[in-house]
Amino acid sequence: MIITVSGAHSGVGKTSIVEALLRILKGWSALKVTVTHPKGKCPVRKGCHSCDELKADFAVITEKKIIEARGKDTARFKAAGAKKVLWLKAQPEALGAGLQKAISLFQKPQKLIIESNSALTYLKPDLAIFVKNKDSILKSSAKRILNKIDLVITL
Q: What are the sequence ranges of the domains in the chain?
């Protein structure tokens, strides 16, 4: 079973919803997906350097010290009770292959929560959740997936 959590924009509460689900759904795992942008084109402009660090078309991050680094969404997933946490960083054109590789690293049967908008381009999850607030202005990746959403949560 796969659940995706997507959102209208950065900071809307996707990670908080994933955390809540992980606390309720014991034994589930989590996958954080980051789609990279060309250098200097980050729409978030947080200075996280995630895009700059990618050396290949995609990378599946498994190292405990990175996954559990304080302040990272992946660390929040682990603290909320995720059985296993991975982080996929992918260039847009390699996202499909990256998802296939990352998902294959979780145990079968999979009980997996994926935080990503773009993953819905390649997956048909059992449940697709979309997070927004009443004044949300949808980013482009959110607009592209609205027809695939099963449940909208307004925070």
A: 2-154
Query: Where are the extended beta strands (E) located within 9-150?
Result: 29-35, 58-61, 85-90, 112-115, 127-132
CA–CA separation, 7 vs 139, rounded Å?
9
| Fold of the CATH domain 2-154 | Rossmann fold (3.40.50)
Local confidence pLDDT in tens for the 155 residues of the chain = 999 999 999 899 999 999 999 999 999 999 999 998 665 555 555 555 455 567 789 999 999 999 999 999 999 999 999 999 999 999 999 999 999 999 999 988 889 999 999 999 999 999 999 999 999 999 999 999 999 999 999 99
